[in-house]
Design a protein that fits this description.
The protein is α/β, with parallel strands linked by helices. The protein has nine helices and five strands. The chain is flat, with a radius of gyration of 65 Å. The C terminus is likely disordered.
């Protein structure tokens, strides 16, 4: 309840009481007893009014204190709300700054990656340009028969020198009849030295690749098989020499594409080369063949060292026999030493027992000597 309303109610009650007193006094003014009673009533009303006024004052003070507390609470809530709003705004600003910084970092990283990729693309473009120039130069080399032959010999040299030890091969070897072979593999008998000759039938292969119709393809195929068989016959006649080389030889094709074309579409040519004991190899199959050759060389060296190994094994067995004899003698010595130690232990045990008996006898004599005078004393 509002304090002003309470105060107005108290004033109204007091006014009613005064009016009633005045009315009673006018009506009963001649009677003193009634006047006294009226005075007492007025006094009680005045006291009640005074008490009500005090209570109203207390209520007003309490209301003022409550309003002050409410005002302080409202101010505290306003300050807390303002502080929370400031904190949230600061956090939001920080998040926005962090987000913008992260976005800037990502953008910078993306630009850096883009520059690196552009640099890689530039380097790749440069490599492509250089490779194009090298391809053009390779085409120029392959268009010349002498240069093409040198290219095949260089590739053969690289493969053989990377797969075998230097003692297992020779390049540009002159045979007994004066003919020179590109490479000679020095293998033990059998099979003996194997000749390798590099051939590059590029023109006939290009005719097959560039054929526009079936007729041109058939004609190019005939030319290709004729060129391959001519190389096979030349190798068989020149580089298979009885008593000097093995009974077979290798024809090296420096192109996997030509080798694949030959085995895919010309099986009769491959069969005729087998019958002529000329094995056609590509760079890949030559590596596999040289691995086999390396195993053969290793086995030959093992056979050469077999006598030495056998002799060393006999010596090793003799050493083992002597070692066994010496171990047996040592074991015998250990057995004898163990027996001697056992006998020594028996002797020491006897000595200890005799010493114990001697000590017990000596103690008995001393006790008798001490007891005799006591017995001799008079009672």
């Amino acid at each position: 309840m509002d304090a002003s309303v309470v105060i107005l109610g108290a004033i109204a009650v007091a006014a009613v009481a005064v009016a009633a007193m005045a009315l009673l006094k006018g009506r009963f003014g001649a009677n003193d007893l009634r006047d006294e009673m009226m005075a007492r009533a007025v006094q009680q009303v005045a006291q009640s009014q005074s008490a009500l006024t005090g209570r109203l004052a207390q209520l007003a003070d309490s209301q003022a204190a409550s309003q002050a507390q409410m005002a302080e609470r409202l101010q505290a809530q306003e300050r807390s709300l303002a502080r929370a709003v400031d904190e949230r705004l600061a956090a939001l600003a920080k998040r926005m700054d962090d987000g913008m910084q992260q976005a800037a970092n990502r953008q910078a990283n993306s630009l850096h990656d883009l520059r690196e990729r552009l640099a890689v693309i530039d380097a790749a473009q440069k490599n492509i340009t250089e490779l194009s120039a090298q391809v053009v130069s390779l085409q120029d080399i392959l268009s010349n028969k002498q240069a093409r032959g040198a290219f095949g010999e260089i590739q053969l040299n690289d493969i053989v020198s990377s797969m075998l030890p230097p003692s297992a091969y020779k390049f540009q070897v002159t045979l007994g009849d004066g003919r020179r072979v590109d490479c000679m593999l020095d293998l033990p008998n059998p099979p003996g030295a194997i000749a390798i000759d590099a051939k590059f039938p590029l023109e006939s292969y290009r005719l097959i690749r560039n054929a526009k119709d079936e007729a041109e393809r058939i004609a190019a195929g005939r030319a290709f098989s004729t060129a391959i068989l001519k190389h096979v016959r030349d190798i068989a006649e020149k580089y298979i020499v009885p008593g000097e080389t093995a009974e077979s030889a290798l024809m090296f094709l420096p192109s996997e594409a030509i080798y694949a074309e030959l085995h895919a579409n010309f099986p009769d040519v491959v069969e005729k080369s087998f019958r002529a004991k000329v094995w056609i190899v590509s760079p890949t199959t030559l590596m596999a063949t040289l691995n086999t050759v390396r195993a053969v060389l290793k086995d030959a060296r093992m056979r050469e060292q077999a006598g030495v190994i056998q002799k060393e094994m006999v010596s090793l067995l003799d050493d083992i026999t002597r070692l066994d004899d010496r171990v047996a003698a040592l074991d015998k010595h250990f057995g004898q030493a163990s027996e001697d130690i056992r006998q020594i232990r028996i002797s020491t045990d006897k000595v200890v027992k005799r010493a114990d008996r001697i000590e017990s006898v000596q103690l008995g004599d001393e006790v008798a000597e001490l007891v005799a005078p006591v017995v001799a004393l008079p009672v």
